[in-house]
Amino acid sequence: MTKHIRIITTHTTDVSHKMKNLEPFARHKELKFSQVKLDKGPASIECEFDEVLASPYIIGRAMEAEQDMHDPVHAIVIDCVGDPALHAAREAVRIPVLGAGETAMHVAATLGHRFSVVTIMDRVRPILENHMKMYGVYDHCASVRAVEIPVLEINKDHQRLYKLLAEEALKAVEQDKADVIVLGCTGFVGCDKHIKDYLLENGFDVPVVDPLPTTVMVAAALLEASLTHSLKTYPRPPVKLRKGYSIPDIV
């Protein structure tokens, strides 16, 4: 049976071009990907404030996906390395919900002794470091480096983006002793090949983890293994009146 993985983009900006980078994986006859963005919320996620604004609508998208009887969704991927609303969404639905940040960091921790994250802006470093502590991978982190490019400017100059990402990745390997590089934004999807080539040119053969495709394939593996999150950790929310939220009912 074909497994349908829904990718929830966590803001209101159209980034459907990301799906092109998943086409090689979608060609697998038993996998199908779809993407939705938010109708309300911030234009991008770059701080805790953005995450809080987006969270109710992310949860709503997750509940819509689980309740879609016409085109059933079997797993959900939160399309942001900041993993907004990840744990709340797991409480709201029973199908697997994976965050691109949590998944990429755990995968990176299995591929080398220490990893470095190369992200958008230094202002998100505390968020990522706090998440690492919660996920239990902080001791595996060599550094968090930033290219100082806001999310909404990622696609304005790809060559400059590749150059900055590659240079910071090289510094992470040479100076911070990272064994693995994690791209710190799902907006960097597809940049891993450029960074990998640059590192090889400089004598370093290290993995570069691209969070979005990595996470969708981990989701596919969980489905194959019939695994989802624990109800003991993520119990269903109690049924009660919640005013002002246009999200599906808890069922």
Automatic annotation (TrEMBL):
<dbReference type="InterPro" id="IPR052186">
    <property type="entry name" value="Hydantoin_racemase-like"/>
</dbReference>
<comment type="similarity">
    <text>Belongs to the HyuE racemase family.</text>
</comment>
<dbReference type="InterPro" id="IPR015942">
    <property type="entry name" value="Asp/Glu/hydantoin_racemase"/>
</dbReference>
<dbReference type="InterPro" id="IPR053714">
    <property type="entry name" value="Iso_Racemase_Enz_sf"/>
</dbReference>
<dbReference type="Pfam" id="PF01177">
    <property type="entry name" value="Asp_Glu_race"/>
</dbReference>
<dbReference type="GO" id="GO:0047661">
    <property type="term" value="F:amino-acid racemase activity"/>
</dbReference>
<dbReference type="InterPro" id="IPR001920">
    <property type="entry name" value="Asp/Glu_race"/>
</dbReference>
<protein>
    <submittedName>
        <fullName>Aspartate/glutamate racemase family protein</fullName>
    </submittedName>
</protein>
